[in-house]
Related to pyridoxine 4-dehydrogenase
Amino acid sequence: MGISSGLGANLSLEEAELVLLKAIELGCTFWDTAVVYQAGVNEKLLEDFIRKHNVRDRVFNTPLEESIPALDEIRKQGKTKYIGLSKCSANTLRKANSTEYSAFKKLHESDVLIATAREHGIAYVAYSPPGYGWLVDDFPHKSPDDFAPDDFRRTVPKFQGDNLYKNKAIVEEIKRLAVRKGCTLT
């Protein structure tokens, strides 16, 4: 959840708070975040928000070996439906829960990740299904220079140099296919 950084324009803390309040109003209960979002600013924002609005009393940082058995007990009691793991090791869950999955990165279909998650009844939660903005109806960037100076995509090879133009051509073909099928990219 890069509400504090990532794709160009950063939200102010006040703007982000409004987004989070609306998310709660709409019933959103699954928020994925990481230190990578503006060097921890995103997590600090969520921490402050949770405290201010008393959404959750405490944030735990418990070793996996302790938390998974406890969470599984809660799941067995019917108090929650799922347990989520993000970017865990292969032995923990073969990275089943937080890996990029989009038209640009589908290697997990040939990998054991999705099969392992299915085998264990674990939801596969992909990040960046819209391919870091590529697969939206109106991708505004015509050249690598169009990205804001602080947009992390400036450092991602698929958005640099000739790669941007090659990938843009792929996206245009995907858009044509979507039109033929009567759907949008989003």
